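re: the backbone from monday

yeah here it is again, tokenized this time
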């Protein structure tokens, strides 16, 4: 169900002319493409909302899940497996066809070898097949290795060739496609191996089906789990994760495939250094590694965004952690120590590990009581007037309490129940024009997705997945505390704050 522009009141033309006459002079507009037009690390999220959107598509939605695998193949977005605390490990494959006119999620009927539920696994695409390795089932590490033909959806088991190392039981690791000349290999790094965090490298040759462990030179990174890894220009870049003492890391390493050597990257020249985390996502776009979300400590997820400039070896902040209301905050405003430890045990998946003391999350400035009160009133009013069962005709009849601010036009974000998930709440834009006393639901320009809601930042989460499609990053699912999601968000790399002002 798409959101349309709703005009609550209109004014006479002569009154609009009077207002135009009394309108204060605007400062000269800067030319597009100028340095001022680009987001800066010191903006702290200002002007960034326009680059985020929630994507609502039709069809049967995938079940809520986190710690799954997602890949892009032939303009289709595939997700497989994952975990939900109520339903357990998933064994389903869904896909969304970006090129199709129907814009629907599709459930793939798998044939061949039966698959059991799996989470915390890894996956890569090679020659039209999704290769899945390792993972966790019922809190036990696995060494499952199989491939799914992404056209016929036939599942076959992968048997490493004679002479291969014994397939390790591993989960919470990473897997990427690397290239050596014209050949592609699957490179597996880190994770829990036999129940213990490791920094091991395994390489699978798609041609001869040989699996081997790589003994790299240089200073090997500390063991880690739930990290991120991307491959660019002959190097594997590994960021953050949880070490063997359950500490959250914020270091970044590169593995040179040709030299078979590890190097820790010096980022001391950066004005911004990201906090340690795990369960985040990482994608590569135009020489930059974009990091979104993750978990600082037990039950302390984030939704900040930043990137690592490979050429400059420095971190750049896009926006800080954004305060987003969701069902988690409503159900669990505070976690006392005993509950926090219980959550850590449930999510660590290795009960012999003791949780460490939580660290404080990055602070962000509050916008002051007046604006907080405004948002609270809007939320309270809308919670009473909006529900998933109400039609658009009913929505038009509902009145929104008008609240006076200053003499400028303001935009406020309020929460509504999202059809993406009964539990998930998403944001839309409510524009207040003080002089015209007009309220408008702003949807924004639709692109390739149905029901795109502009200016909508995902809530804090970890265990989600991310891919790059054209000039956009697609975020799916994840969880926060005990609640998993099945929502889709888009981040536009190209859209700027100037484009936002034009669209509005």
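seq for it, each position gets an aa:
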């Amino acid at each position: 169900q798409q959101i349309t522009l709703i005009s609550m009141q209109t004014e006479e033309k002569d009154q609009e002319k009077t207002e135009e006459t009394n309108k204060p002079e605007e400062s000269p507009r800067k030319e597009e493409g100028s340095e001022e037009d680009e987001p800066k690390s010191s903006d702290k999220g200002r002007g960034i909302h326009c680059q985020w959107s929630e994507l609502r598509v039709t069809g049967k939605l995938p079940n809520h899940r986190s710690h799954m695998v997602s890949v892009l193949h032939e303009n289709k977005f595939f997700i497989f497996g994952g975990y939900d605390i109520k339903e357990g490990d998933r064994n389903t494959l869904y896909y969304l066809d970006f090129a199709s006119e129907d814009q629907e999620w599709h459930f793939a009927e798998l044939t061949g070898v039966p698959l059991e539920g799996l989470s915390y696994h890894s996956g890569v695409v090679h020659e039209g097949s999704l290769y899945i390795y390792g993972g966790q089932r019922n809190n036990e590490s696995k060494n499952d290795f199989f491939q799914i033909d992404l056209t016929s959806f036939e599942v076959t088991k992968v048997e490493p060739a004679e002479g291969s190392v014994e397939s390790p039981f591993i989960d919470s690791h990473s897997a990427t496609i690397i290239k050596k000349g014209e050949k592609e290999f699957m490179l597996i790094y880190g994770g829990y191996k036999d129940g213990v965090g490791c920094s091991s490298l395994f390489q699978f040759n798609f041609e001869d089906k040989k699996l081997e462990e790589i003994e790299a030179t240089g200073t090997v990174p500390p063991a880690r789990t739930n990290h991120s890894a991307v491959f660019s220009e002959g190097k594997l870049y590994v960021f953050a994760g949880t070490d063997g003492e359950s500490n959250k890391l914020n270091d970044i390493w590169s593995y040179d495939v040709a030299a078979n050597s590890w190097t820790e990257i010096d980022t001391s020249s950066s004005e911004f250094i990201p906090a340690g985390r795990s369960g985040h996502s990482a994608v590569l776009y135009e020489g930059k590694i974009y990091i979104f979300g993750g978990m600082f400590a037990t039950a302390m997820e984030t939704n900040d965004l930043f990137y690592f400039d490979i050429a400059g070896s420095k971190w750049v902040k896009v926006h800080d952690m954004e305060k987003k209301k969701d069902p988690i905050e409503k159900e669990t405003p505070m976690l006392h120590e005993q509950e926090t430890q219980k959550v850590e045990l449930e999510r660590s998946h290795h009960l012999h590990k003791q949780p460490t003391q939580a660290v404080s999350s990055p602070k962000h400035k509050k916008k002051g009581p007046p604006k907080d009160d405004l948002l609270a009133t809007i939320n309270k009013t809308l919670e009473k007037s909006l529900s998933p069962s109400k039609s658009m005709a009913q929505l038009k009849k509902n009145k929104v309490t008008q609240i006076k601010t200053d003499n400028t036009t303001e935009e406020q974000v309020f929460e509504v129940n999202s059809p993406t998930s009964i539990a998930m709440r998403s944001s839309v834009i409510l524009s207040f024009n003080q002089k015209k006393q007009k309220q408008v639901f702003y949807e924004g320009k639709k692109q390739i997705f149905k029901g795109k809601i502009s200016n909508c930042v995902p809530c804090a989460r970890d265990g989600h997945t991310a891919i790059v499609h054209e000039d956009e990053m697609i975020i799916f699912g994840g969880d926060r505390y005990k609640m998993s999601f099945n929502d889709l968000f888009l981040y536009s790399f190209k859209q700027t704050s100037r484009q936002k002002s034009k669209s509005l």
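The chain has six helices and 37 strands. The radius of gyration is 24 Å.
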